[in-house]
Amino acid sequence: MNFVCSFVAQSTFNYSIMNKETDHLAQLAQIRSLMERSSRFISLSGLSGVFAGVFALLGAFAAFMHLGSNLNMFDYNDYPVGVNDDGSFDLMRFFIVDALLVLVASLSVGLLLTWRSAKKKAQPIWDATAKRMLINLLIPLATGGLFCLILLKHHLIGLVAPATLIFYGLALINASKYTLDDIRYLGICEIILGLLAAVFIGYGLLFWAMGFGILHIVYGLLMYNKYER
Asked: Is 103 exposed, middle or buried (0-12, 13-18, 19+ CB in 10 A)?
């Protein structure tokens, strides 16, 4: 009888300890979640990456058709950046308008889907964390944009596509400190593609489509399955 009472008391004691440990773990998980929400912007939508990739592929396809279905563009460095009688400015103007349309469409859909994701998670879309993420994203992007303008000024058009990929990758890595860690891996892939595009300089459009198109779609689908389903 004493043995049974002792066994029951010991079991009750162990059960109580297990419950306390479970409660502590749950509290720690909750604290970690609160700290993550306060220090990281976690409302990014994976579908926004998919749409950005689709828009980029459409833009690349339009450029591909405008160039006469020519992916090997070793001669595009010969196009001066200015207005000429041979219509070379039309090519540059087309690329600028094409890129701007892709950017505006991607940002518009991305903001809409991110707002929906933040609303679903009851998270603010614009707070101190979002500001820090945006600042860290824009510094490399703005630097890369100015660098690309310098390349155009010196007629180094073939290096523009590699430069956009590299600086975009650096921007993603820099911003990943304040959002999902997975973005860092996307940034590394973008940098690798940018370096390859600099080696195979005649195929900048192809690498641009792979980096901004295919990689975005793959990343977006992975993030959607991981965080939003």
From this structure: middle
Count of all residues that appear for the chain in the document: 229
Residue type at 38 in one-letter notation: S
Dump pLDDT digits (tens) for 54-80. Answer: 999 999 898 888 776 555 555 554 444
- Written as six digits, the tokens of 218 are 């793959």
CA distance 5 to 224: 54
pTM over 0.90: no
200: tokens are 């195979």
Q: What is the 3-state secondary structure (H, E, C) of the chain?
A: CHHHHHHHHHHHHHHHHHHHHHHHHHHHHHHHHHHHHHHCECCCCHHHHHHHHHHHHHHHHHHHHHCCCCCCCCCHHHCCCCCCCCCHHHHHHHHHHHHHHHHHHHHHHHHHHHHHHHHHCCCCCCCHHHHHHHHHHHHHHHHHHHHHHHHHHCCCHHHHHHHHHHHHHHHHHHHHHHECCHHHHHHHHHHHHHHHHHHCHHHHHHHHHHHHHHHHHHHHHHHHHHHHC
